[in-house]
Amino acid sequence: MSTATATAASTAVLKTEARLFRREPASLFWVMAFPTILLVILGSIPSFRHTDASLGGIRLVDAYVPVTVLMAMILAGLQAMPPVITGYRERGILRRMSTTPVRPHALLGAQMGLHGAAALLSALLSLAVGRIAFDVVLPRQVFGYLLALVLAILAALALGALVAAIARTGKIASAIGSAVFFPMMFCAGVWVPVQAMPDTLAHIVELTPFGAAAQALNQAAAGDWPGWVHLGVLALWAVVLSGAATRWFRWE
């Protein structure tokens, strides 16, 4: 198959998957709208708009902006993407695609690209609403923030790809995703911001992809370059999870 044919086939798959993705209101809501809605609810609580010494003098609403940013990635990677891919495998779509000019990896790439774009748009929406509604300061270290954001999205999608790789059915993928979802939400700081955790627990959490991402985003938001250790943890998780997903992924 020529390069031109492969490119045309991949483009067709991307357009088709984008059209199907737009027809999934539940996925669009949870990935793109729910994190911002949660931020609005939390920011509407008066105590969340007061400075907190335990958070280094910032407000709880300031600390929860990176949390809602990470929540979109976790929802996209663990809840939205794996059931779609495993559903295609169950129905034999991937197997049939292997006999056409379209290769299965085009479908996987399209799914990761669409969910990654949705998570990125959700992150930008949370930042915009936080700034407009609650006067949350925009990230002062823009390039460091974007780097941490991209690495976090890659790690989240790689984790979702691994779930899709090891799950034989959509139901199993949903069960695994739900089991991993809550620990990852804790590490992202949904219940307790990482800054407010005891030192020992915070150091452990920082070794997880979303704990490291939370710290990197907080550092960049404050105007500092994200710690290289946190960026390294994110990059390592993205590489390891991607390698594991590639190793164990089955198209049939």
Automatic annotation (TrEMBL):
This is Transport permease protein. InterPro entries: ABC-2_transporter (IPR052902), ABC2_TM (IPR013525), ABC2_TM_bact-type (IPR047817), ABC_2_transport (IPR000412). The lineage of its organism: Bacteria, Bacillati, Actinomycetota, Actinomycetes, Kitasatosporales. It is a multi-pass membrane protein. One of its GO terms (molecular function) is ABC-type transporter activity. The keyword Iron does not apply. One of its GO terms (biological process) is response to antibiotic. It comes from the Bacteria. It holds the Pfam family ABC2_membrane. Belongs to the ABC-2 integral membrane protein family.
